[in-house]
Target: Replication restart protein PriA
Amino acid sequence: MNIAKVIVDVPASSINQTFDYVIPERFLEILKPGMRVIVPFGPRKIMGYVVDWTNDSDFNNLKEINDVLDLTPVLTPELLELGKWLAEYTLSLYITAFQAMLPQVLKANYKKELERISNEPLSDQLEAFFAGRDSVSYEELENTSVSFSQIQRAIQDGAIAVRYLVKSRVTKKHVAFVRPAVETQLLTEAFEDISDRAKKQKEIIDYFIDHPEEIELNQLIKLFKTTRSTINALQDKGLIVSFKKEVYRNPYNDDAFESTTALELTNEQRRAIEPIKQHIKNDEHDVFLLHGVTGSGKTEIYLQAIQDVINKGEEAIVLVPEISLTPQMVNRFKGRFGSNVAVLHSALSYGEKYDEWRRVHRKEVQVVVGARSAVFAPFENLGIIIIDEEHENSYKQEDQPRYHARDAAIRRGENHRCPVILGSATPTLESYARAQKGVYKLAVLEKRTNEKAMPEVDIVDMREELHAGNRSMFSRRLKETIDQRINRGEQAVLLLNRRGYSTFVMCRDCGHVKECPHCDIALTFHKLHNQLKCHYCSYEEPMPMYCPSCSSDLIRFFGTGTQRIEEALTQLVPEARVLRMDVDTTRRKGSHEKLLNQFANKEADILLGTQMIAKGLDFENVTLVGVLTADSMLHLPDFRSAEKTFQLLTQVSGRAGRHELPGEVIVQTYTPEHYSIELASQYDYMAFYKQEMQIRKKFQYPPYVFLALITVSHKNHITAVKSTQQIVQALWPLLQHDSVILGPTPSPITRVKDRYRYQCMIKYRHEPELRTLINKIVQQFDEDVRKNDLLISVDMQPYQLM
Ligand code: ADP
Ligand code: ZN
Ligand code: ZN
Model:
């Protein structure tokens, strides 16, 4: 067994296979599958993952592994298998899948260097470039006048060579510590010898006589209000030694969390948790859908189930949406399990993330709380996986590998024979339908634990505002209520659905929105040709002059950005202090928390923002939540738009009045009669589910069918259209009779960075060979992809249909 099968770090479909390498004698004992290695590949050296062993290879003249980067595997056998599955399931490359499962810093960094290999003098220019050095980084060439042909000649002459280096980006943090260098007995003798004038030295020795263990250097200096030179003096005398020790960057101060204990569960909670506890006890896998309104005690159930898992000596993964990974959420888990919790989310620095990951890797914690990719935490004895707010879109990764965390979680749950819990107040139709069919087990929490009613939702018809002569974005009702709340010293949250992005046309008089007669989605406005297009099926019609429903000429494009609203708001309520929270104001690390803290400290009266403000917030003083334009989400060109609207409205409503002060929700819309708005205001999930399922059935959308979205992009418009056309034509004859391909049609965002985007969508029930077929067809374009800059992306079960 001295040949390793390696997946190399070359993201190209022609390289998407293992390569065999000989394991040199010196690595035979230490190398294991799941470790990263450096291997020669063509003229370069690159990083790779060892995935398997073998005794013999079909190839001759195998090269040797150059180096081993890890002491213990970074991918467990289970994760290696999962990575393979992930790549095949999402039609991605193996290397991409593996890298998606690991922290960023474990990716390799490649450097190119020019090295001088003979003592012969070089041309003057090259001598000046090397400036006495043996090797120089390739990048330095850019800023010089040395020509490429000069370099080539020198390489041919054997004077210099190009070297490829692989660097691991891993950075570990080291801190200086000191400890006594001799026994206590000798310290005591030394204490006597030190002159009384060296007072600090004596104090420190005295300290070490009582505390012979190591202490952080900085801490010691602080403790005795002394300086480095005192420490150095003691070190010179051979009494103490200083040394560097690796420490973890801990982004959370574990002492700062107030510790909590398990609450006495309500009857409802007890009924819900019982089967989960049974599964934990019996090492049994099942998926549980925990359906409960905000405040119904889902998190408490998670905490108590995790406690069982910990007691069993096993481990837990908790996924929460990126955006709600707020300090408030982290507090709940740290408060119950203290330093037994690692937290993984994208606001951490690469170094911090790596350290948290290593605490998991080294089994120093039993619980990890994190965003999507935490589902790959390298635990080996998983006892439970929890996905909170399972309906959140952020669980779907929108670039390669395009996986959904739910699928990966269920796969791991099967591997480890442990339960997977999906929690939500508004489950996806896919999950709820599975629960109805008995594929998932359903657990329901109907009441809030504090028995408080959900806040009253008031729907304001914006058409009536217009008819009453109010053309602003704020209804009279909303304006009055804001004034009233501010006068009472209370706060308001105003939600704007989406920043800037909007594609539809709506009649301001009657709220009419043009929809595709075949697909039940809003038509997309294409300004260039003044056309309305369906981007699912390519139906199109001219932009009407008058509303086809009420003949008004107030039919037009719909869209407003947060910044404009902020201006309008400041004019409308000049006395209010407004905080704006959107992607622009939260780009910097920590700015999200900062804004929330300012608001919590009542430094502002109104928090205005996109949906990122809808999640996880819990402010005692917020008594008003206003939704400015419920329509802009409702008419996204996406068959899930009604579901997303329902989820968002339910979620924001849950934010108001969780505490003593009663809350109120005001929803502004041009289509108050739409079922998603009406039913969200009544908190009636079941009625919404039933109605939406009928529509999904009628127009054939998930959960009744599966989807695959193929998007093609190219600088040249015609190439993009043609290639998509060719894919559609190649695929049609190979599909089952009940499958359908829609398109080619332009993507709703038709042009991005000067590339034209076209797409086609496959709707299918049963296509066991679909992935293989798509792969084969896409491979026929390999040459265009490599040489002609054509991009083809495949998304199995897409969430973003833009
Ligand atoms: P969810 O996760 O469904 O929004 P939480 O678990 O956050 O609900 O519970 C809402 C509130 O009710 C929290 O303040 C929590 O501490 C409290 N709570 C949960 N379970 C109980 C219980 N059994 N008894 C008393 N209070 C509870
Ligand atoms: Zn109209
Ligand atoms: Zn259509």
About this structure: The two ends are 49 Å apart (CA to CA).
